[in-house]
Design brief:
Elements: H1 4-30, H2 36-53, H3 60-81, H4 89-112
Helix pairs in contact: 1-2, 1-3, 3-4
């Protein structure tokens, strides 16, 4: 359980790096931004991959599964804060279910001990 907060922080940083990298490609292709956005996007995606390997999970698949809930929550936060779109109740309900799933994956083994 003591590793939970650092793990959540790491996943949150990884999520914003991944979302930022993907958004850079989105901005280039869909918003007509400069191709230089792709450089920033590639750097963000490399940072994302590095951060996810720092997880304390024993197996990559488990790290990715737990990270998925944080990614979805962070994406909804991005929608609201960066894109200035208010999340719908369905965004919030779905995001909450995903975060609950992430908590089960991360906390389940610790509670079993």
């Amino acid at each position: 359980m003591p590793l939970l907060l650092p793990t959540l922080g790491l996943y949150l940083l990884a999520a914003f790096a991944e979302i930022g990298g993907c958004f850079a490609v989105w901005a280039w292709l869909r918003l007509g931004k400069s191709p230089l956005w792709l450089v920033a996007g590639a750097l963000c995606l490399a940072l994302f991959a590095y951060l996810l390997t720092r997880s304390q999970a024993e197996f990559a698949g488990r790290a990715y599964a737990a990270y998925g809930g944080i990614y979805i929550g962070a994406s909804i936060l991005w929608l609201w804060l960066i894109e200035r779109q208010i999340p719908t109740r369905w965004d919030l309900i779905g995001g909450t279910l995903c975060v609950i799933g992430m908590a089960v994956i991360l906390l389940g083994p610790a509670l079993q001990k």
